[in-house]
Amino acid sequence: MKDTSSDMIRSAVRETYGRIAQTPQPAHSDAGGCCSPSTPPDQSSCCASPDSVSLQYGYSTDDLAVVPDGADLGLGCGNPGAIAALMPGETVLDLGSGAGFDAFLAARAVGATGQVIGVDMTPAMVSRARANAVEGGYTNVDFRLGEIERLPVADASVDVIISNRVVTLSVVNASGGG
User: Fold this and answer.
1) What are the φ/ψ torsions at residue 119 (nearest 5 degrees)?
2) Cα–Cα distances in angstroms (integers) from residue 95 to residues 92, 109, 148, 166, 175, in the given order
3) What is the pTM of this model?
4) SS3 of 25, please?
5) For the domain with range 4-175, which CATH number is right: 3.40.30, 2.160.20, 3.40.50, 3.40.1000?
6) What is the per-residue pLDDT for 171?
């Protein structure tokens, strides 16, 4: 029997994040993807600029400067790269990679001999991340469409897994099943 509640959750997440991915944001914008045009930016809310939110979560101004414009949507809740201690040559899997922000920072950390695989279940986010990778000249990042419950990655093929908030959106986590 098909689990329609899981399908409904996945559909809602795809729709919401698809809209965010397709919303144009100026470079270093004053309003994050979760804000409506009528909601004024506020440092204490989700409507703070993606840059200010990222700085609060431990990203540096250097981190913000090196990623392509539009990669930081301010949707995370921490800095997984700060605690991952990534090393050159490693293969990193970024769960829920979105527009690619953490994947691009990981790509810099693992260098040309390393690889980053970003997985996101929202086609518009994968498209945006791929465009950001081209814009930023990232050749060691591969963005794949997929669900974290069924990863499009070979077993035992990664050294480090990072994730920034997406695990809370997992159907397994949300409904207790998959």
Assistant:
1) -120, 130
2) 10, 17, 7, 7, 19
3) 0.64
4) coil
5) 3.40.50
6) 66
